[in-house]
Specification:
- The protein is built from 2 helices and 6 strands.
- By secondary structure, the protein is an alpha+beta fold.
- The longest helix has 21 residues.
- The N and C termini lie far apart (38 Å).
Length: 99
């Protein structure tokens, strides 16, 4: 799988979650992707290692929105990924409590 390597070397991701919506902007080698939806509909937020690079597991943050899955954070340190995952989970749980 080339995507994680490309994201780590030449890509970036931007995640914005408000009280009502989420938006993910990703770009790799000039190719851009924009995704958005209702924040309350994010049904799973995972931190896991589904890929390996140079025989080392690489953690990624995965957002599930309906049947779609969005992965990002390949170029962050594991500590940054853990912190970001925790912040996203806490924020989305607060949103769900208000709905």
């Amino acid at each position: 799988m080339l995507y994680p390597e490309a994201m780590g070397l030449a890509g970036n991701s931007r995640l914005l979650i408000t009280n009502t919506t989420f938006t993910i902007n990703q770009s790799v080698f000039g190719f851009k992707s924009l995704t958005s939806g209702k924040a309350a509909d994010l049904n799973k937020i995972d931190l896991g290692s589904n890929i390996t690079i140079n025989d080392q597991p690489v953690q990624e943050i995965t957002l599930r929105h309906g049947v779609k899955t969005y992965k990002f954070g390949f170029n962050l340190t594991n500590v940054e990924k853990q912190w970001l995952h925790s912040e996203i989970v806490t924020f989305v749980e607060k949103i769900r409590e208000k709905v």
